[in-house]
Amino acid sequence: MPKLSIEDLKRIREEGKHTLTMRTGEGRARVTVHMGTCGISAGARDVMAALLREIEERKLTDVIVTTSGCAGLCSREPMVTVQMAGQPPVKYVDLKPERMVRVLTEHLLGGKIVADFVLASGSETTG
Amino acid sequence: MAFRTHLLVCAGTGCVSSNSYQTAKALEAEIGKWGLDREVKVIRTGCQGFCAAGPVVLVQPDGIFYCGVTAGHATRLVEEHLLKGRPYTKLLYTPPPEKVPIPALHDIPFFAKQKLVVLRNRGMIDPERIDDYIAAGGYTAIVKALTEMTPEQIVKEIKRSGLRGRGGGGFPTGIKWDTCRKAAEAREVEPVVVCNADEGDPGAFMDRSIIEGDPHSVLEGMVIGARAIGAREGFIYIRHEYPIACERLIKAIDQARDYGLLGKDILGSGMDFDIEVVKGAGAFVCGESTALMASLEGKVGEPRAKYIHTVEYGYKNLPTNLNNVETWANVPLIIERGAEWFTSMGTGDVAENPWNGSSGTKVFSMVGKVNNTGLIEVPMGISLRDIIFGIGGGIPDGRRFKAVQTGGPSGGCLPESHLDMPVDFDSLTEAGSMMGSGGMIVMDDETCMVDVARYFLEFLTEESCGKCIPCREGLRSSVDVLTRITQGKGRAEDVATLEEVSAVMQDCCLCALGTSAPNPVLSTLQYFRDEYDAHIKSGICPAGACKELIEYTINAELCDGCHACVRQCSTEAITGEVKKLHAIEPGKCIKCGACIEACKRDAIRKVPRRQVA
Questions:
Q1: Apex CA B441: angle with CA B495 and CA B491, to 5°?
Q2: Rounded to two decimals, what is the model's pTM?
Q3: Which H helix or E strand runs over B324?
Q4: Chain B, nearest residue to A68 by Cα
Q5: For residues A117 and A80, is the Cβ–Cβ distance under 8 A?
Q6: Which end of chain B is more exposed for a tag (fewer CB within 10 A), N or C?
Q7: Count of A-B CB contacts under 8 Å
Q8: B233 φ, ψ to 5°?
Q9: Does A61 touch chain B (CB under 8 A)?
Q10: Cβ A16–B84 below 8 Å, yes or no?
């Protein structure tokens, strides 16, 4: 009796896919949670925890979560920036864990920007 | 909960010796302190390549690359990057001539110009977890080879890919497999496959890094090879001086056995194959095929004459297919992606005849007088200039490039005029060097080429098994002559003697250690004949490296009597009062160079020794 079948091998591959996607830094979408002092005190950590939990539960393998510092608009924290591959980044403000889940469902998975808490599309000019 | 960030801490031998395990531990402690241990994970990877910058840590998915990360940096790194979400600038890579650090790995020229095939998983997977290898697409090729391809089709695919032996010889792998398979069939015996991991060239660490970073790629290649050739038994011959590689290899084999990827009835295909690790004692000559097989059998590691090849009569007189670590690691991807993908990289048209070019990539360990020492993988046909100046970042301290030695101790030294030459099997051989297993030693204008030839021949003299006279005596007499020349006692006939001895060795030695041993002498004679002449005729070492031919002096205009050199001198050869001109007593000076490093005003110079009448 073989110990592992070809199907088992495929299953192990699928299970590990998310981890590896993260290590290459390439995925369908990247969500940056702004975690400056302002963000953290407004609840950014809870927002991120909710996001990570949803990703785990829905077994999403190609959504990457990263953090960065204050996005500059401290009064509207917690904020996240959602960047779908090949599209301009979109910033969301005044987030709560349940709102974050909506962004995940409607924008990241559904492709539609959630107008209720969107700040703007695009980024500041740098340089 | 899923982890949001992975800290990939390099645990290759280079970084481990700079205490990267402590770095990893300190990072874990710091992450735990902030309660981030459910969000952030520390992974110990194989060699990430940029050994000069070690211990290195890559943060993913951010792609931020940190250099020289010690345990003491852990607090700040975790605070800055993981809590505040901004790169810890102090540890970012900053290219030497510039001041602006480069945060992202893919923007650093050292990484940007490489092409990773064999090292595809480096720094990405935890080499001690088979699930990581599988998640990265590993053991996909085995399924294809076992369920969709006949052994003949596998051999044909490898032949068409043009893959040539990465251990140095450059013999087409597909032809070797075919010969071994047919030899076994004709004699109705079971063939054996062996992996040569007896990497012995000074300064070379390609195979070690492949095994340390991705051991399963080698195992998968061997299973495919065993299927193609019809073997049920395999060996990996590895030197015991590679403790981390041995440990990870044995762990990988255990994991593969647990999953039934080695052993009986692999993946239900009916194929049986298992691998045993055999540790060698670290003799250079045991990398030679017949000596390796003698050692495998428990005999003294000495080569035999090769009028009968090991593919026909090798280990225990069975047909034995021996390939190098890197060759095996190439196999899974060729099977998975096909020969056309492999031939799209490299030089020549190899589809009909593998001897017509060099397909694929090559891994090199780049060391010596180059800014970015480390492990690199490049497509065949890239120029030496792109490797040394593009990836390697040029020569340190603003010095001039003089030569690059490829092919290990029995390779050759190529001068500046060859920098634009393509790097492939045939071009290197034509230029008087060879591909070898992929060691690359860069030399600057302070390197004496006669001394380099002497160094490599001394190494080979020690490593020669002494079985055949041309090698044993030829090496000894060559070293005598070379030593004499570096001491300024060279004779007019010395160059002719070296050439004659070399010619005999090339013709008569029993194995490749001996026949290739004259390469360092012949290539330096070919490209740097003027240096030999300067030593012999004028008693001058143009590079200022041969200690017997130089002396140290202090420039009176530059010396301010700071006394720094006096404090460093271990033989009390420097005299002089503070704030007054110092002097060096030639009789006491051992020319160690400590004073030159100590002098802030660059006042101490090496000059040709004054001739004694």
A1: 15
A2: 0.88
A3: strand B320-324
A4: B85
A5: no
A6: C
A7: 105
A8: -130, 135
A9: no
A10: no
